[in-house]
Every structure is written in C-alpha cells, then in structure tokens.
C-alpha cells in the first residue's frame, strides 16, 4: 500500500497521553513562537493590501488575527499564514530546511473555528504535534530539490497540514488519504520569489495552506482523491523528489510523533541560513569590534547557503526580502548594532549607507566544497582587521537549534519584540500563559480570543 495509508492511520490514532513530555514541551514552545511571529507580521508589506483584496469575497466564521474581523476558512487561513511567515521569523527544521508550524497552524486554527469550536487544549496540541511531525517527516525523507526550483517548505509542509486537520476532525484513515490525494493535485511552490527578492515569497506557504483547507473540505464531502499519493507513477516521490525518497525515514519512529522536539526556533528575523553567520558577527561585536575595525571578512559556508543567502547585497536597491536573505547584510547589522531585530528589516533600515557599504564592499561569501551541501554549519569567518591582525572564528552549531535551544527567557524576549513590532494589544505573559494552559486541558478558545 502507498505510504499515505501509514501516514493517515498513524495521524488519526495519536493520543495526547501517549506523547512524550518533551514532545509536548516542544509543541507548546513552537505554538508560542509561531503566534508571536504572526502578531509581529500583521502590518508587513503586502499584507494590508492582501486583506483589502480578499475582503471582496465576504465575511465568514474564522478570525483574521490581530483584530481584522472574520473571513471564510480558506481566506482566513491564507491571511493568517502570510502574517506568520511575513518576517521570516518562524521556525525551521534545519535538516531540510522547512517551516513547519507556518504550514500547519493557520489552517488548523481555522478548522478549530469552523468544525471544533469546543476543542480543548490537549486535543489541539495533539493535532498540532501530528501535523508538525508529518511535515518534518516528509521533508526529511525527500530532502530539498533546490536544483529543480521547488520550495520544499511548501511541498512538504502541506502534507503535515492535512494530517493535523484529519486528527482534529477525528477522521478515519480512508478519508485522510483522500484529503492527501486532493492536496497532491494542488501542490506547487517555486523558489523564484526568493531568487528575485519578491514579497510573493511570504505568500507561498499561505497559498498552500489555503489549498489544504479546500482539500479537506472535498474529502469531508466524500469526493475521492488519488490513492497512490506518494508512490504512484505521478505521485509525490516521482513528481517532486525525482524518485529519490527515503521511505524508512517516514516509517522510523512514526508512532512516537516526536519530531517536533527537533524543530529550531529562530532568534533572528531572517533566513535560517543567516543565523550561524549572525552568531559569529555578534561574537565579534561582543569582543568590541565594529565595522571601522575590520578591513575584510571572508565567510565560508555550504553550497546551499550561497544559493539561498550568499548573493551580492546592494543597499540602494535591495528590498526587505533581499535583506532577510542576505548573509552580508545581517552580518553587517549584527557586527555594528550588536543585535539583529525586526526593526532592522524596514526600508529605512536597509538604506543605512554605513551598514550597506560594509556589506557590499568588505564581506565576501564563498562555498566551502568540504562542507555538506545543505549544511547550515559549520561556518567560518576569516577576519582581516584594519591593524593587520588576522582572526579565524567558527560556528559549529546554530543558536535556536535543539543542541543550542532558546531558553524560556530568550523566547519571552522574542515574544515581547514581536508583539511590540506588531503593535499588539496582547501582553507577552498573557499569551505565554494561555498557551501553557492548553496542557491542562483549557479550551483553545482561550488562546484564540487573544490572537483574534
């Protein structure tokens, strides 16, 4: 049988009391982080225009977070997914990489409002853990196919989104496979928006989240989808993964549903491939060095890091997405300012000549062929100081990863920055406390009330 049957039957049979405490901890932290990112992105470029453009299709029962009223489930899920991903501050699975909660959570919350208004916290956390685990499992089994131009967050993450909603609705495996089949017929996602620095990049996960809501509705109506979702002649594996897919990676430990424990939360609002370089830039700053003290920084990273974030940075023409996907810019900011925050990714901040000129003229980025092509670490800086001194510093782990996890205090600081940036009326401790209350079975409506 197609692997879709295993994914479906496992997802709908998961129970809260069988999840590891560590899995629940990671799911709760991921939920706090993701909702904070969504509230931070409410006023990001493109989102007000999107809310206006989609309003013509009428109201509905699902909240558009941040006090923007209600919309139909597909539209609300779309808009909320855009805000969650808009600042590129949402979580990643560093081994793929992909954004998991950003693909799973917006549709799941819309589905709570539409089909499970009485949903308690433990049921919600179980469905979320199932979805995040499924997204990561598919992403790791297939791996990115960047050379073909697929956006791997989008094509893999949508599988997890279907599984989460199936668990929430307490479906059987057959209906879930139908929904996965419908989603296969709609799966797409190009990396060209990143290559061109287009704001469309932040809309891509949302496009797929909206499609998941539609796929689930079709399956609920009893309309059958393709059954050989993954292993069919034109299934996911052949179509999106060039026939190369590790089925054992899907099967291994699937009953534990514990991959959320391996998800990384971002300490900086930029592409994850910039994070290890930022860590090193902050290390230089802590040593008292500034741009005026440095003649040149030669940065050695993986081939995929060069592809994603290694392009030349021109502060005179760069947009926000260009800055979010630039090692040169983020390193220059970290070195000069001692932090990389949401406010560093505005049009005004990007035009800072001192930061921009340093990024363009005194930072070089090259691929180290001895490193794993997809690796985020190790990263090395060869630093030539203005006084003739040479420094070599390296990063072997990335801040926010499972091996270097953000503390509760660091996560709270991030939430505070996010809520302030989004001009939210929600208090950080109020949001954190409400999400933690889900572990005790408090209704999910207690969280929804805050974000809505």
TrEMBL record:
InterPro entries xref list: MmgE/PrpD_sf, MmgE/PrpD_sf_1, MmgE/PrpD_sf_2, MmgE_PrpD, MmgE_PrpD_C, MmgE_PrpD_N
One Pfam family hit: MmgE_PrpD_N
Domain named MmgE/PrpD C-terminal: residues: 268-425
Domain MmgE/PrpD N-terminal: 7-244
Membrane spanning stretches: none
GO MF terms, alphabetically ordered: lyase activity
Classification via SUPFAM superfamilies: 2-methylcitrate dehydratase PrpD
Highest taxon of the lineage: Bacteria
Protein family membership: Belongs to the PrpD family.
Protein name stated in the entry: MmgE/PrpD family protein
Species of the source: Cupriavidus taiwanensis
Lineage, opening ranks: Bacteria, Pseudomonadati, Pseudomonadota, Betaproteobacteria, Burkholderiales
